[in-house]
Specification:
Elements lengths: L1 E6 L6 H13 L6 E5 L1 H10 L5 H8 L9 H7 L5 H12 L4 H6 L3 E8 L5 E5 L5 H10 L9 E3 L2 E5 L8 H6 L2 E7 L14 H7 L4 H8 L1 H18 L2 E4 L14 H25 L1
Parallel strand pairs: 1-2, 1-7, 2-3, 7-8
Antiparallel strand pairs: 3-4, 3-6, 5-6
């Protein structure tokens, strides 16, 4: 039975995921496939490249760099997270992503995006990490309202979390029957409809399918949580989630919070290490 790693998004809450992954990497825990959504994709690719510590390192190094993530970048380029800097200059020149290790690793790597014209999820397996692969990851993490749609694969894409926030069913359909799922919200969390719907109606009216998808996203997400509970009872998945609401916003860049959320992930993984090893 193939073993998978399913990674939810959540912006900077993904530092919790990075902490969990680093502990698992340090203990040699490997998977046959990884699927990441949004921050789960941008941070999760470091599992395939065998680079523990990289996520924390570059987030601390570039947290105050306007080219990385800033209002200035949003106003100048249309992207809160600078597209060229964050997805090309940084991984190729400043904190180098190990493309060779990533491409040599046999684990499959999948990302989830959302087609802006249909509002439906688009699933893509990155068989070779290069500039095209980085663009797929950027598309998966391009948050609506603060990102331009990314043209790739003949489609315009935005954040995969809009249409499939926790893609467990997808991965099961790909033959991954035993999955570790890392969430960035605590047990008992249920999503409410976003209070930003008036802004979606105003600024995303060119893409009515995205507006509609965002209006029902909370329903999709909460149904996925119910499915996770069912799968957990059946023993087919191992859920890893923070004990409490993570003390960081989706785009927050305060050093003490970055470090704390990352450490919360490490602490959770160390606490569950024996259980993770036995499950995998």
């Amino acid at each position: 039975m193939r073993k998978g790693l399913v990674l939810e998004g959540g912006g900077m809450r993904g530092l919790f995921t990075a902490g969990v992954m680093d502990v698992m990497m340090e203990h040699g825990i490997r998977f046959d496939g990884i699927v990441g959504v949004s921050a789960g994709a941008t941070f999760g690719c470091n599992y395939k490249s065998h680079q523990p510590g990289r996520v924390l390192r570059y987030n601390l190094r570039f947290k105050d760099d306007s080219r990385y993530m800033s209002l200035r970048s949003l106003l100048q380029t249309g992207d809160l997270v600078g597209a060229e800097f964050s997805y090309h200059t940084l991984p190729k020149e400043l904190d180098v992503f190990d493309f060779d290790a990533c491409n040599a690793d046999p684990a499959e790597f999948h990302v989830v995006c959302t087609d802006v014209m249909t509002g439906e999820p688009v699933y893509h397996r990155i068989d070779f990490m290069d500039d095209d692969g980085l663009e797929w990851i950027r598309a998966s993490a391009s948050m609506p309202l603060v990102s331009r749609p990314v043209g790739i694969g003949g489609r315009l894409m935005l954040d995969g979390g809009i249409s499939d926030s926790i893609p467990l069913r997808y991965f099961q359909g790909q033959g991954f029957g035993r999955n570790v799922v890392i969430l960035t919200q605590p047990k008992g969390f249920y999503k409410k409809q976003t209070r930003l719907m008036p802004l979606f109606h105003l600024f995303m009216r060119k893409y009515p399918a995205i507006v509609q998808a965002m209006s029902r996203r909370h329903l999709m997400y909460n149904e996925q949580l119910s499915y996770l509970e069912e799968q957990e009872r059946q023993g087919s998945i191992l859920l890893i989630y923070p004990q409490d609401t993570l003390p960081i916003g989706r785009t927050e860049q305060k050093e003490e919070k970055i470090r704390r959320v990352y450490e919360m992930g490490r602490e959770k993984a160390e606490e569950m290490l024996g259980e993770i090893q036995a499950f995998v």
